[in-house]
Amino acid sequence: MEETDAIAGAQPEDKPVLDLVLYPHRSLTPHGFLILMAAIAGISFTVGLIFFLVGAWPIVGFLGLDVAVIYLAFRLNYRAGRAYETIRLVDGELEIVKIDARGRRRRYVLPSAWLRVDLEARPRRAGRLTLHSRGRWLEIGAFLGQEEKDGLAAVLRDGLRRAALPPHLTISDTN
After folding, report:
1. Do residues 155 and 163 touch, judged by C-beta distance below 8 A?
2. What is the percent of the chain with per-residue pLDDT over 90, rounded to a whole number?
3. CA dist list (Å): 114 to 12, 14, 53, 98, 133
4. How far apart are CA 132 and CA 146, in angstroms?
5. Structural contact between residues 17 and 89, judged by C-beta atoms closer than 8 angstroms
């Protein structure tokens, strides 16, 4: 008897039409953060030393507190940057998995046949990108900028269009 790697009755997973991972943008790298904090601490130390030498020593504590608050704000911002979303369109379903900064996971599955992608325009702010299906809606990519949301909306619409085609038809890109 010959051994096989496949489990009896198991079907190979269908190839996804879309398989995306969305991450929040962080413009300052960890190395850049260290340089920034060193510069802020150096400036605060120099200014604090001047105040200390002229007899205004209580100011030194406030300058140290400023450095600590700036450091804490950046650390919280980087922690929030650990959140991400995955979007996978396969076999007539769109699966969205949202993982927050603490690692908590929420999974949503929407039938692609009933799905509508909406990008709400808002003045002076990034619009809201929502998926609508059978009277329910879900916001995705809330941490993305407007240009990124525009691109994501176009990719999602294209993926949904491709998923709606019968298997024997394909769309060729003529760009």
Report:
1. no
2. 54
3. 26, 20, 71, 21, 5
4. 19
5. yes
Choosing among 2.30.29, 2.60.40, 3.40.50, 1.10.3470, the CATH entry for 18-25+84-164 is: 2.30.29
Distance CA 23, CA 100 (A): 11
pTM: 0.70
